[in-house]
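Example (one chain per record):
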Amino acid sequence: MASMIKDVAPTGKVIESHKLIMVNADGNNNKYWNVFLHDSGDVFKQWGRVRTDADGSLKTTGSQSGLFQCGDIDSGRRKMESEMRGKFNKGYEEVRVVDSPGAIPSVSNGSLKQAAKEDIGGCPEVQKLIEFLVQVNVHQIEQYTSLRRNASGLFGTPFGVIDLEVIKEARTVLDEIAPFVMNKDWDSSSAKDTMTKFLRLIPHDMGARIDLSSVFANEKKLEAESDILDALEASYQAVMTAPVDDDKDATPRSKIFDVTLAKASVSRFNRVKKMFNSTKKSMHAASRLKVSKVWTVDMPTLKAKFDKKQAKLNGEVWELWHGTKASNLLSILKGGLIIPSSHSSHVTGRLFGNGVYASDQATKALNYAMGAAPGQSRTGLKRYFMFLCDMAMGKVGTVTSRSGRFPMPGCDSTFAKGGNRGLVYNNEMIVYSTDQVNLTHLVEFEG
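Predicted structure:
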């Protein structure tokens, strides 16, 4: 049986690796344990506290390490698996990453920016818009989170780019964390279990001491974690995208963005501008903004789902405004709108259930894009965006109270009429399936 030796470098190439983590708030544990199997049969392991270098990668300087010289690959694999079982028995879990040795360099040409420009295409103005949206997305992440891009322009945890299924699971857990944060509960066993579960899925550098009340201090911190998940998902897409080279047998990458943007005609621009000016309200901060550009949006997959849903509901289609942050636009153009739960980190209000909220009063929706809605903070940008969309309303339930079940029994949508004392100041329309929404225009505003 091989004995561990220190201060000796392994020989050969890495052919398999595993990255483990243990997070325990009560024990102040935020520890990693990595193991590497080499084709020489050497098994090299490294362990320490999760800390990051300036570029966001795992800091291994000063960590402890050991080497087992097993002589051949099969013996080395058995030793590695034995060591891992010991760690699992102590509460470690494996971090599921997709950047195995050699993976990251292969995607340098498959960045989100390049993919967006290739998939969406369009005129030079559209290409400039895409560059801006990528820049805003990256700036938002690097300003408000600890993530940094690596040499290939990808975002990852200290362990690398995370598997997509892990990201999806982390979104669910983040929603579960929100009620604890709103109740200022960081110390109950349920809160600790939920928060440390998230930190095992998405490893963080938390310094010398774990302080859950700092990591998940408030809704703004939760929103930053949501931005991290968006960035990790984009990087996952890039990692899984095969670059196309001059080899005629190369497999083209799958399309990430199923959308076409085009500069609107003069007549369409004027119609959208007139619609905005006729529905804005001076009471809103957004009323000072002016329409600067209009793009038509064509998302064939979403449009097909919308048409099918609309035919089934057989009701009216309302043309409404939906505002969102500029940093959300790439995600929306990639997959359409989502319906977050009422506890999601980026939700500022869900008075009438979990659904897609819109309004026929333009500046009501545009306030959200500015960060001027209740519970939001200003974005600091000078460019703001809003979607004009068709919403299949089906049977509309007009509400007169904030209490009750939404949608109302037998209804497909909700209409909360503005000006109703004790209800809402502005009109709000809500649908409860994303298939009831078709994005038709992206409108840019300047102020």
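Caption: DSSP finds eleven helices and 14 strands in the chain.
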